[in-house]
Amino acid sequence: MNRSLPFFGYGSLLWKPGFEPVRTSHGRLKGFRRSFCMYSVHHRGTLQDPGLVLALDHSTNDICEGIVLWAARDDYDRVLAKIRERELVTSAYREEIVEVELRGGGKSEAIAYVVDQHHRQYCGGLPPVAQAKIISGARGISGDNRDYLRQTVRRFDELGISDPGLLEVERLVSEISDPPAAR
Fold first, then answer.
1. Which of 26, 76, 138, 141 has the fewest Cβ atoms within 10 angstroms?
2. Among candidate residues 152, 148, 17, the one with its CA nearest the CA of residue 80
Protein backbone atom coordinates (compact mmCIF):
# COMPACT_ATOMS: atom_id res chain seq x y z
CA MET A 1 0.00 0.00 0.00
CA ASN A 2 1.68 3.20 -1.13
CA ARG A 3 -0.33 5.69 0.91
CA SER A 4 -0.88 5.94 4.62
CA LEU A 5 -4.59 5.46 5.19
CA PRO A 6 -5.93 5.84 8.71
CA PHE A 7 -7.57 2.97 10.58
CA PHE A 8 -11.22 2.77 11.57
CA GLY A 9 -11.46 1.70 15.21
CA TYR A 10 -14.74 0.22 16.41
CA GLY A 11 -13.67 -2.13 19.24
CA SER A 12 -10.33 -2.84 20.87
CA LEU A 13 -8.44 -0.47 18.54
CA LEU A 14 -10.16 2.29 20.50
CA TRP A 15 -8.54 1.35 23.81
CA LYS A 16 -5.49 -0.59 22.62
CA PRO A 17 -4.43 0.71 19.21
CA GLY A 18 -0.82 -0.45 19.58
CA PHE A 19 0.49 2.91 18.38
CA GLU A 20 0.21 6.58 19.29
CA PRO A 21 -2.14 8.19 16.74
CA VAL A 22 -1.05 11.59 15.47
CA ARG A 23 -4.69 12.49 14.88
CA THR A 24 -8.10 11.03 15.68
CA SER A 25 -11.63 11.89 14.64
CA HIS A 26 -15.04 10.48 15.43
CA GLY A 27 -16.46 8.80 12.36
CA ARG A 28 -19.55 7.01 11.11
CA LEU A 29 -19.39 4.05 8.78
CA LYS A 30 -22.57 3.43 6.80
CA GLY A 31 -23.54 -0.06 5.74
CA PHE A 32 -21.91 -1.83 8.70
CA ARG A 33 -22.85 -2.85 12.22
CA ARG A 34 -20.62 -3.67 15.17
CA SER A 35 -21.53 -6.83 17.05
CA PHE A 36 -20.15 -9.83 18.89
CA CYS A 37 -20.30 -11.91 15.72
CA MET A 38 -16.85 -13.51 15.71
CA TYR A 39 -15.59 -16.37 17.84
CA SER A 40 -12.16 -15.60 19.28
CA VAL A 41 -9.93 -18.67 19.27
CA HIS A 42 -6.72 -16.80 20.02
CA HIS A 43 -6.87 -13.44 21.84
CA ARG A 44 -10.00 -13.90 24.02
CA GLY A 45 -10.62 -17.63 23.81
CA THR A 46 -9.21 -20.91 22.57
CA LEU A 47 -10.16 -23.49 19.96
CA GLN A 48 -11.63 -25.61 22.75
CA ASP A 49 -13.38 -22.73 24.52
CA PRO A 50 -13.87 -19.81 22.11
CA GLY A 51 -14.64 -16.30 23.30
CA LEU A 52 -16.35 -13.52 21.38
CA VAL A 53 -14.96 -10.31 19.95
CA LEU A 54 -16.57 -7.41 18.22
CA ALA A 55 -16.43 -7.35 14.45
CA LEU A 56 -17.74 -5.17 11.67
CA ASP A 57 -20.44 -6.95 9.75
CA HIS A 58 -21.88 -5.72 6.44
CA SER A 59 -25.43 -4.49 7.07
CA THR A 60 -27.13 -2.30 4.51
CA ASN A 61 -29.25 -0.13 6.83
CA ASP A 62 -26.91 0.19 9.82
CA ILE A 63 -24.28 2.75 10.80
CA CYS A 64 -21.29 2.01 13.02
CA GLU A 65 -19.85 4.83 15.07
CA GLY A 66 -16.14 4.68 15.83
CA ILE A 67 -12.87 6.58 15.69
CA VAL A 68 -10.54 7.17 12.76
CA LEU A 69 -6.89 6.89 13.85
CA TRP A 70 -4.00 8.27 11.82
CA ALA A 71 -0.47 6.90 12.26
CA ALA A 72 2.62 9.00 11.68
CA ARG A 73 3.75 8.78 8.05
CA ASP A 74 7.28 7.72 8.95
CA ASP A 75 5.93 4.97 11.24
CA TYR A 76 3.08 3.82 9.00
CA ASP A 77 4.59 0.63 7.59
CA ARG A 78 5.49 -0.63 11.08
CA VAL A 79 2.02 0.25 12.45
CA LEU A 80 0.25 -1.43 9.51
CA ALA A 81 2.35 -4.58 9.94
CA LYS A 82 1.66 -4.66 13.69
CA ILE A 83 -2.10 -4.19 13.24
CA ARG A 84 -2.21 -6.83 10.52
CA GLU A 85 -0.36 -9.27 12.79
CA ARG A 86 -2.94 -8.65 15.50
CA GLU A 87 -6.14 -8.48 13.46
CA LEU A 88 -5.34 -11.10 10.82
CA VAL A 89 -4.17 -13.84 13.20
CA THR A 90 -6.78 -16.06 11.54
CA SER A 91 -8.48 -15.41 8.22
CA ALA A 92 -11.78 -14.43 9.87
CA TYR A 93 -11.25 -10.72 9.14
CA ARG A 94 -10.80 -9.15 5.75
CA GLU A 95 -8.92 -5.89 5.44
CA GLU A 96 -11.13 -3.45 3.54
CA ILE A 97 -10.83 0.19 2.54
CA VAL A 98 -14.01 1.97 3.62
CA GLU A 99 -15.30 5.53 3.42
CA VAL A 100 -15.97 7.08 6.82
CA GLU A 101 -17.96 10.25 7.45
CA LEU A 102 -16.00 12.44 9.86
CA ARG A 103 -17.59 14.42 12.67
CA GLY A 104 -17.81 18.05 11.67
CA GLY A 105 -18.01 17.20 7.97
CA GLY A 106 -15.84 15.59 5.39
CA LYS A 107 -14.98 12.01 4.63
CA SER A 108 -11.91 9.85 4.78
CA GLU A 109 -10.97 6.50 3.40
CA ALA A 110 -9.76 4.20 6.15
CA ILE A 111 -8.67 0.62 6.67
CA ALA A 112 -11.22 -1.47 8.52
CA TYR A 113 -11.23 -5.11 9.55
CA VAL A 114 -14.51 -6.71 8.48
CA VAL A 115 -15.65 -10.20 9.44
CA ASP A 116 -15.90 -12.82 6.70
CA GLN A 117 -19.46 -14.14 7.03
CA HIS A 118 -18.39 -17.45 5.46
CA HIS A 119 -15.57 -18.11 7.92
CA ARG A 120 -16.03 -20.78 10.60
CA GLN A 121 -15.46 -18.14 13.31
CA TYR A 122 -18.46 -16.09 12.15
CA CYS A 123 -21.40 -16.34 14.56
CA GLY A 124 -23.71 -13.48 13.65
CA GLY A 125 -27.16 -13.48 15.18
CA LEU A 126 -26.32 -14.97 18.58
CA PRO A 127 -28.84 -13.67 21.13
CA PRO A 128 -27.42 -11.37 23.85
CA VAL A 129 -27.84 -14.05 26.56
CA ALA A 130 -25.76 -16.53 24.54
CA GLN A 131 -23.12 -13.84 23.93
CA ALA A 132 -22.97 -13.08 27.65
CA LYS A 133 -22.57 -16.76 28.59
CA ILE A 134 -19.65 -17.15 26.19
CA ILE A 135 -17.96 -13.91 27.25
CA SER A 136 -18.38 -14.71 30.95
CA GLY A 137 -16.16 -17.79 30.83
CA ALA A 138 -13.71 -17.36 27.97
CA ARG A 139 -10.03 -16.52 28.22
CA GLY A 140 -7.28 -16.35 25.58
CA ILE A 141 -3.66 -15.25 25.31
CA SER A 142 -4.71 -11.59 25.63
CA GLY A 143 -6.78 -12.20 28.77
CA ASP A 144 -10.35 -12.61 29.96
CA ASN A 145 -13.13 -12.01 27.49
CA ARG A 146 -14.96 -10.06 30.25
CA ASP A 147 -12.03 -7.62 30.44
CA TYR A 148 -12.25 -7.05 26.68
CA LEU A 149 -15.93 -6.18 27.08
CA ARG A 150 -15.34 -3.92 30.11
CA GLN A 151 -12.45 -2.05 28.46
CA THR A 152 -14.54 -1.49 25.35
CA VAL A 153 -17.58 -0.23 27.26
CA ARG A 154 -15.40 2.08 29.36
CA ARG A 155 -13.71 3.54 26.28
CA PHE A 156 -17.05 4.02 24.51
CA ASP A 157 -18.27 5.95 27.55
CA GLU A 158 -15.14 8.15 27.51
CA LEU A 159 -15.57 8.84 23.79
CA GLY A 160 -19.34 9.38 23.94
CA ILE A 161 -20.08 6.45 21.63
CA SER A 162 -23.52 4.93 22.13
CA ASP A 163 -24.04 1.20 21.61
CA PRO A 164 -27.13 -0.12 23.44
CA GLY A 165 -26.48 -3.71 22.31
CA LEU A 166 -23.03 -3.68 23.89
CA LEU A 167 -24.44 -2.28 27.13
CA GLU A 168 -27.07 -5.03 27.20
CA VAL A 169 -24.39 -7.72 26.84
CA GLU A 170 -22.36 -6.04 29.60
CA ARG A 171 -25.42 -6.07 31.90
CA LEU A 172 -26.02 -9.76 31.21
CA VAL A 173 -22.34 -10.63 31.78
CA SER A 174 -22.50 -8.82 35.13
CA GLU A 175 -25.58 -10.85 36.12
CA ILE A 176 -23.83 -14.11 35.19
CA SER A 177 -20.47 -13.22 36.74
CA ASP A 178 -21.79 -11.51 39.86
CA PRO A 179 -25.26 -13.02 40.52
CA PRO A 180 -27.36 -11.36 43.22
CA ALA A 181 -27.10 -13.04 46.62
CA ALA A 182 -29.69 -15.76 47.26
CA ARG A 183 -32.66 -14.54 49.23
1. 141
2. 17
- Helix/strand/coil (H, E, C) string of 156-174? HHHHCCCCHHHHHHHHHHH
- Summarize pLDDT for 91-141 with one digit per residue, the tens: 999 999 999 999 989 999 999 999 999 999 999 999 999 999 999 999 999
Separation between Cα atoms, residue 140 and residue 54, nearest integer Å: 15
The residues with which 67 forms a beta bridge, in sequence order, are: 9, 26
The CA R_g of the chain, rounded to the nearest whole Å, is: 16
Q: Is 93:114 a contact under the CB 8 Å cutoff?
A: yes
* Cβ–Cβ under 8 Å, residues 94 and 67: no
Q: Are 158 and 24 in contact (CB under 8 A)?
A: no
